[in-house]
User: Fold these one by one.
Assistant:
Number 1:
Amino acid sequence: AQSVTQPDIHITVSEGASLELRCNYSYGATPYLFWYVQSPGQGLQLLLKYFSGDTLVQGIKGFEAEFKRSQSSFNLRKPSVHWSDAAEYFCAVGAGAAGNKLTFGGGTRVLVKP
Amino acid sequence: GAVVSQHPSRVICKSGTSVKIECRSLDFQATTMFWYRQFPKQSLMLMATSNEGSKATYEQGVEKDKFLINHASLTLSTLTVTSAHPEDSSFYICSANPRLAGYTQYFGPGTRLTVL
């Protein structure tokens, strides 16, 4: 069975600083990987996804993620954080015949200091 | 595009009653819809997968007689929590997988259920 680990429960970063959120997955086949963001009172919003091809994926809001098969990782990065990036971030792996059954990591809460 | 709505956003009910939550894809047809449960400060746990016109597939440990799922059309799925108890209090989130859109799921804003 697939699993996703987000080692960092909380991360505090200063506004304007860079951000990297870690995600490690376990899956026996080629994974479909996703990053979602959940802001208070709002639904999960898709930041980016990886299915195949270029291992560096660009997403919305200035985020990018890099798929590293050798490390079973899909870390999310942003060069310069804005206060509005404070939220909960979830990494997920898609499995099943259609790759659309998602297993989520535990999430990382990002706090942004002024 | 790809907007998913849920109704109600919050509901409070008495123990023993049933509650229905609706999930609608507003601007696309969804071949598959999913229901998740999220406990406070925790991740999302998949409860069930529903395909239009067929029975839902429940994850291990999820009581199908307690959490009734109906996927009546390509834009509507409902979750009914039957004979609700305080331990059913949670945040319920649905998502939808558009047709011809690969494996991406779009999520609703969630429904906060409180059972007194």
Number 2:
Amino acid sequence: QVQLVESGGGVVQTGKSLRLSCVVSGITLRGYAFHWVRQAPGKGLEWVAHISHDGGRTDYADSVKGRFITSRDNSNNTLFLEMSSLTKEDTAVYYCARQNWGPYFDSWGQGTLVSVSS
Amino acid sequence: QSALTQPPSASGSPGQSVTISCTGTNDDIGRFNYVSWYQQESGKAPKLLIYDVSKRPSGVPDRFSGSKSANTASLTVSGLQAEDEADYYCTSYVATNSWVFGGGTKLTVL
């Protein structure tokens, strides 16, 4: 049974940086691509980033391109999302999600809340 | 990439059927058969309901079904049950490894 557990969220000031982690268990990490999806308070889901199974390819939503970087450590079954130049619009619950046999997300973590304030 | 368009709310009585629409463009729903649907209960993480427009992962009841016509995808929930009350999101793959979600539909079981 795959399990994803995000951490690293918290309150951060505008313009600062924060790194989120997602520890994955129950599977071999290198076999899968993963995504980050966020949800602002009371709002809908927004796709944020994708990382290929080996980390060789990353893709980002326009809203975070140039500010967010996703990476992975397959040996430690951990994904990362480095967020910089944060604005209040980045306030959201951030989920990591597995991409399995096709372009959709079959397993999700419980999310970690990032609050950006001045 | 603009979000897919969903109605903000839908409702039905127990036992009835409800259909939620999801409208995109020729660059997403109209181009790829990679529409998926997610159910999000209050305070919980989303759960995959439908993938590849109309396929169900194991464990998802066959009361949930998906379809697509041109640039619009649809999720139908048949035989509504109280436990179906949740938010529902569609998403589509867009070219060059990006994805777009719909704004979400809150389903109320009356």
Number 3:
Amino acid sequence: NAGVTQTPKFRILKIGQSMTLQCAQDMNHNYMYWYRQDPGMGLKLIYYSVGAGITDKGEVPNGYNVSRSTTEDFPLRLELAAPSQTSVYFCASSGQGRTEAFFGQGTRLTVV
Amino acid sequence: TQLLEQSPQFLSIQEGENLTVYCNSSSVFSSLQWYRQEPGEGPVLLVTVVTGGEVKKLKRLTFQFGDARKDSSLHITAAQPGDTGLYLCAAWPYNTDKLIFGTGTRLQVFP
């Protein structure tokens, strides 16, 4: 019972590099979300999607891009990585009833 | 502007003490959720409150939704070291599909 799977778990990037954080869910959920969590803080919404082909900005979208070509996958793209993007990134999904969000285990990203 | 403000931000207590965490907003929500997050893990849902004034109990945890559906509280009775973690409230504001999280309360319970 996989739920929400994120890869990689850890990554170190150099300033200016790019990378894609992968997120996949096997629960046939329409809603998917990307959050970042800085040390000791709550979660800030980066982007979200209500279904394949539909995405929208959250609270902190600058420096990131997303796509949703299938129901299962919701990758997050970082272009031109900056030290301010050092954080833990969580992907989550929710069903149509929006009663609960299920989270992946996170990707810890360090930009040096 | 943070839509959901939690207080306190940090709480460090001895085993057996009681505590209350608050989640406040100027907005009205159709429902509100509480999650707990342990180090290295994603948040996990504890409870969803839906009706204004609703009280839900989960063993030693008591959750209340404000009458006006703008605020919520989490009360823990006789805290145990296993309660240690980051507690987060969350909600979907009306007319949006964004799931917004509160600022978080980090609880440390010492034996």
